[in-house]
Structure formats: structure tokens, C-alpha cells
Amino acid sequence: MNERPDTDPIDVKVVDPSQPDAGQETPVGEQVSTLRLVATLAVAGALAGLLIVLVNLHTKPIIDAYRAEQLRLAVYEVLPGAARYRTLYRVDDGLLADVPEGAKASDFRQAYVGYDEAGEMIGVAVSRGESGFQDIVLVIFGFEPESGILLGMKVLESKETPGLGDKIFKDLDFVDQFFARPQTPLLSIKAGSGKGLPGEIDAITGATISSKVVVSIINNGIADWQTVLQEGIPEEAP
Description:
This protein has four helices and eight strands, in the order αββββββααββα. By secondary structure, it is of the alpha+beta class. The strands form two sheets. It has a six-stranded antiparallel β-sheet with strand order 2-1-3-4-5-6, sandwiched between helices. The protein has a two-stranded parallel ribbon with strand order 7-8. Strand 1 (84-91) and strand 2 (94-96) form a beta hairpin. 35% of the residues lie in helices and 21% in strands. The chain has one domain.
């Protein structure tokens, strides 16, 4: 009688064909490459963030100084004849010459009071922004608080459509109307359709919306500030 020879048991591994990666291990080299990629991206992101912060720290004072100078020039532009001006801060619907202790000037709306060579007040300039056709239009304008007569207007910021909406600051015929001492509230009308009424402003053909926004900013701004200004402007310290 023949006996079966002794043999080692056969190790059979069943693989589910629906799982193509079953039973396969990720090579060590592939794991290392993935970790290296993640680490590289993390370091690059950190360096990029640090670079942005450093650039911002360097450029912010320059940008702030430029904006402050542009604002200073704009105040003199919208207050024709002003030899100097001082800044007042709107706090609790009143005007103060200085901000409250511990507060920042940027936390409060500001009014710029202009004076002539003799020290007589010419008018007050304020800034205001409202939504235009594309984005916020920021305008600074000067006016006489008692009479409501407008003294001047300048667009500080605008992203209105080039060639059309940007005429609110490029079209000098349009801009000059705000320096002709019109009576407020202003009235935006179709160019050439005026009846000679006080405060009529010819809108720009093709940019009616942007034109009306400028008029709205001024009317709303004067209405907003007039009550505060009528409460009195603080006297200058000797």
C-alpha cells in the first residue's frame, strides 16, 4: 500500500476581484513621497503667508500716507478759497475736536471745516459712499451748512464702467456744475432739459445711473450732516 508523501500545507489567499487594490500594500517609497509633497506644500504656504504679511507691513504706511495726502488735497479742492482746515469727529451726533480717550480717529466719521486767510469759515467738507452701477462710489464734497449751497465735489473712489460711468470724474463739464454754487438739494436732469431751477445738474448721457448716484450722495450727505452741524461747531482752542 502506497502512502502519500508528507507535504507542507498550501497557503491559498482569496482575493476579491471587485476590489482591485485588495491585498496590495502601499510601497514605502510612495508613502515617503506623499509625506514629502505635503510637507513641501505646507512650508511653501507658510512662507507665502509670511511674505504677504511682511509686504503689507512695509506698504501699508506708504499707502496710508498717500491716501491722507490725497484727502488733504481733495478737501482744499472742494472748499475753494480755503487757506486751512481742521478736522472734527462725529461722536454721538455731536462734533468734537478730539476723539475720546482710547479711541481711534478711523472709528468716527469726520468733517473738515475750512477757513479763509482772515479766519472766517468758508464751509464744511464731508465724504460719503453709496452703491453705483458697478460698486461703491466714494465722494467728498464741500457746502455751506447754513445756506446749503454746494461749493465743490470730487470723486475719491469709483469702479464705474470705463468710458461711461467714469465720466463722473473725467467729464469736466459735468464736474464743473458742482463748483457753480448750486443750491441743494440737487436735481439730476436729462442734459439740456433744464428749466433754470436752482440745483439742476445735467446728467451724463450714457451714464445716467452714475450721475444720479453722485447727486444722491450729496443730497443724502447734506441731510445727514446738517442737523449735526446746526448743533454747533466747536470753537478752536486758543
